[in-house]
Amino acid sequence: MKKFFLFCCFLLSSVFVSAQGIPLNTWRTHISYNNGIYVQEVGKAVFVATQNGFYSVNKSDNSVQTYSKSDGFSDIFAKRFAYSQEYDALFIAFAGGGMDILQRNKIRNVRELQLRNFEINDLYINGKTCYISHSTGVSEYNMAKKEFGETYTDFIISGATCKSIPVNSVTVLNNQIFVSTASGVQMAVINDKLLLQDCSNWNNISTLSCGPLATFAGKIWGAFNDGVLRYYDGTNWLAFHTDTDKIISLEVNHDKLILARDQHIVIVNNSLTSQVITSNQQNHAILDEEGFLWLAKGTYSVIRKNVAGNQDQFIMPNGPATAATYKLYNNQNTIWVAPGGLKETGGGLFNNDGFFEYTDDNWTNYNEVTVNNWTSLKDVMDIVTDPQTGNQWIASLESGLAEFDPVNKQILNLYDATNSTLRNIDQSPIKASASGLAFDKNNNLWVSDYRAQKQLSVLTANKEWISFNLGSRKSVTSVVVDDFNQVWVNISREGGLYVLNYGDKVEDPNDDKLKDLNTASGNGALPDNLVTSIAKDLDGQIWIGTNDGVGVFADPGAVFREGSNFDAVKVWVENGDESGYLLSGQAVTAIAIDGGNRKWFGTKNGAYLTSPDGSKVLNFFNTKNSPLISNDIRDIKVNTVTGEVFFATDKGIVSYRSTATGGGDKHGDVYAFPNPVRPGYAGPIAITGLVRDAIVKITDITGKLVFETKAEGGQAVWNGKNFSGQDANSGVYMVFSTNKEGTETAVTKILIVR
What we know:
The strands form 18 sheets. A 4-stranded antiparallel β-sheet has the order 1-59-58-57, with no helix packed on it. Strands 2-3-4-5 form a 4-stranded antiparallel β-sheet, covered by helices on one side. Strands 6-7-8-9 form a 4-stranded antiparallel β-sheet. Among the domains are: 327-657, Methylamine Dehydrogenase, Chain H, CATH 2.130.10; 671-752, Sandwich (Immunoglobulin-like), CATH 2.60.40. The two termini are 36 Å apart. With 754 residues, the protein is mainly β. Helix content is 3%, strand content 45%. A hairpin with a 4-residue loop joins strand 38 and strand 39. It is globular and about 90 Å long.
């Protein structure tokens, strides 16, 4: 009981931290927890591994707790668990070969297996030893010594031939060890482990390809790949359960053998009588202490099933519907996710996941199940908020443009080839390929029309459609409108940028001006012709990411100004021997602007934060130095209210609470957090709700100045120290904020308790 109490402390401490909200400079994951892979009972909890992460379920109330690299784990893509009640140790094997051990409220990252390039297939606990079946054999981990023991890599393949081969499973009976492989089952005596290094000491007791093994009722059981469950009587393998239905898993739980097939579960007791329960498409099954089946499923993640046949319980943490992400969009305190995308060949993915919304720490998924009047919005490529109505506009590569009411959760309008100027590559009379969206200051909605003959359309504020043929290159995606109401359109495959100035009236084609930018000096001077991202910063400059670094159009209005040099400039970063142009040689896949006008860049190697002018790299995050789950950054957006930065990767979404928020012309609700600052806290203290780029001064109660700084956008950060670098004493501190003109002021207080 004491051991499990310690384990529960880990769960409760994680819940407490989560309940306080995400502090500055910390991370959290936003994972889709469907597609359950594996389940493991751990005292009063059940751990669940899914395709994209892992979590635990409290059996008493079905509450869930998610885990991530922020908690200290080395990875999130768990594939196998094994639990030792004697040592109160949970072994967690990750896809790719890493392993963590959660023991008595502490996490140990075990990297030895990953360094050896092992792919872990299974874990098995026997006494003080955890046997690790992997891609080149079997390794032992001694829980008493907290170290690795022997590794066995040579097994008999045929005749006397010895070879290192993948091991699927291990089990032990008395002093004998059994391993299963694609070539059969082998057995050896454990008396002298050094002898097991010699494959001649292993006996081949079956040549049939075998998956999981188990020790039950004094016998060795094997789930063979011919669909037959057999047990070994010391001489022969005897068939026990035969079916054409594929065997998925084999476990021993609470004196019962649990066989999971694709279409049903078989529960075998010690007298070798069995009970068959119908259940479809599980990936793993166990029986808990209370007699409930836990099934790792596809869409439902995990199901708690009453063997007596009562209603099943579907248990899954809140999260986006899938891990697919192509583009993010932020509107104040809300993040929207477009999960579509393009194949390398340029065609759509035919993604049918719908789209996702994240507001107030909660994910809502919109698809054919949750929206009553859903239409087939495949490959959602972009989302934008209507500044007049608050509705969302959805760009679909397959269906065109949809207007969505997020309050009543219904599609209001759908525009395709039948009722708009939108088309697709085939000039279908129905389908249309919307790929990018942006509103201009006149409330006209601009839509890039991927591979259509007229690749840019606009739905005017008067609800009229107009289309534009920008040139011969048709693979247009992202759209950005600058402060001069000019429309910038990215050409994703053929390369380059289109810039359209539609003049005084969008309806009048006679005053339209068009530029087709490329790498040539005097015509854009793009760092590379393949433009991979584009964004407008708070000063109105246009930043572009290319296949070879970053370029900046410092004066976008000069593009059509006669005689002006409007070429993009590359940003020089001074960094000693590593000085050079910003992200030169890297494909810049995403650009985001935070409330302090700092620049966030996504690449295939991680994410960068730079100063507002890009000349100084302030931070760099990758999977090795942060909780990022992948270095392949697809998009970045910033929640301007909280400063939380969202990273869309090829494996899902993570976020980081940065120090900059959006600031306005006036102060908002000014407050500090954490407040009060309690004993033991040594982190940053944020003052938020400020006028943009405010001058902030902090004094003690006597009026003595202890700290002064400039806000990053609408938020300033204090390290809790005075000018001498010493911790500020207990007491009340006054915070005075003003804009640089001194016309907009605000005051708040901070209480520090040491």
